[in-house]
Specification:
The protein is α/β, with parallel strands linked by helices. Helix content is about 40%, strand content about 20%. The strands form three sheets. Strands 1, 2, 3, 5, 6, 8 and 10 form a seven-stranded mixed beta sheet that branches. The relative contact order is 0.06.
């Protein structure tokens, strides 16, 4: 009877261990260069997380010195790292230092809970991220937070009071490292590269943290928008695949591509892209009907859908019904 009971007890213990091990895998995490992330395909952002071990076990899945990158690439997509998730480094009691990239805007609860050997956390964000109440709970007593601007970080809630500061001259190399990590991963234009190089020159010669970060954010906006611009340009070119060969239509497409390349933020880019695609819907039939002067798309008006403004000679026609464009042109 005792042996049978012992076997049953061992079986139960094994089942419990298996359950713990099954729960110990963060199935949502993607491991890239020894750091685990939750990837958001909709926003192309990434959150640092715990990975192969349960977040509560403290088995040191992160140790020594961790430099979190500004951006990562997975399956051909580039994700900007914007947060340190809940429990990300919890109980990693061999972790010594962490560098937090400038794109991070939030640090979750218990992110660095009981990281008892953590001595240095370097913050690259010029504006402090939102930090959860328990993010740095029960850490090493001599933990130091290195920040780019003392005036912005001192007095913040939820961070230890023992703070040291890096000088401006020490910060520029970090920024350049971040830029180099993502520069040329996407297909940048020659103009993009010229602009980036000019901003890097400013960063290298700048004595102002604010200027360094302003330049850096401009660079990353250029890098971030390029794949979106390339996608918009590809859509334009695809829409014109069956168009007749004509200098007018080629010039129209180039004009639209120049507009896309000049966009400086995502909202403007999306708006222009939608307007251009609406215009291209009318470009081929309008050209075939004899319009070779001005063809502009108009935004939607109520429930009437997108429209077009057509100028032919001295006449200007505005239509909000795309199906009747060719009819009115011919008439």
């Amino acid at each position: 009877m005792k042996r049978k009971f012992t076997r049953l007890l061992l079986s139960a213990v094994l089942m419990m261990c298996c359950t713990v091990m099954a729960n110990a895998i963060n199935s949502n995490a993607t491991k890239i260069d020894n750091i685990y992330y939750i990837l958001d395909d909709a926003t192309l952002t990434a959150a640092v997380t715990w990975g192969g071990d349960n977040e509560l076990l403290g088995t040191d899945e992160y140790s020594n010195n961790i430099d979190i990158p500004f951006a990562i690439t997975n399956s051909g997509k580039t994700y900007k790292v914007t947060s340190i998730g809940q429990d990300a480094f919890r109980n990693c009691n061999m972790l010594q230092s962490v560098t937090i990239p400038s794109g991070v805007t939030s640090i979750g609860s218990n992110a660095f809970y009981k990281c008892i050997t953590l001595n240095n956390v370097t913050f690259l964000p010029f504006n402090p991220p939102a930090i959860a109440t328990t993010a740095f709970r029960q850490n090493s007593s001599d933990i130091k937070l290195w920040v780019p601007d003392e005036s912005k970080y001192v007095g913040m809630e939820n961070i230890p009071s023992n703070i040291s500061y890096m000088s401006t001259n020490e910060y520029a190399p970090y920024i350049l490292d971040e830029i180099n990590a993502v520069w040329n991963r996407e297909s940048l234009t020659a103009q993009d590269n010229e602009i980036i190089e000019s901003y890097i020159t400013e960063i290298e010669g700048s004595e102002s943290n604010a200027q360094i970060y302003a330049d850096e954010q401009t660079i990353f906006e250029i890098i971030r928008l390029r794949p979106l611009k390339n996608e918009a340009i590809a859509t334009i070119n695809n829409a014109m695949e069956d168009a007749p060969s004509s200098a007018y239509l080629s010039g129209l497409v180039q004009e639209y591509i120049d507009i896309i390349n000049a966009a400086t933020d995502e909202n403007a880019l999306t708006s222009k892209k939608n307007e251009i695609i609406a215009g291209l819907t009318f470009a081929i039939p309008a050209y075939n009907a004899g319009v070779t002067e001005t063809l502009e798309s108009l935004p939607s008006s109520g429930t009437t859908g997108n429209g077009v403004r057509i100028t032919k000679g001295s006449q200007t026609i505005e239509l909000m019904n795309p199906d009747k464009v060719e009819y009115f042109i011919r008439k």
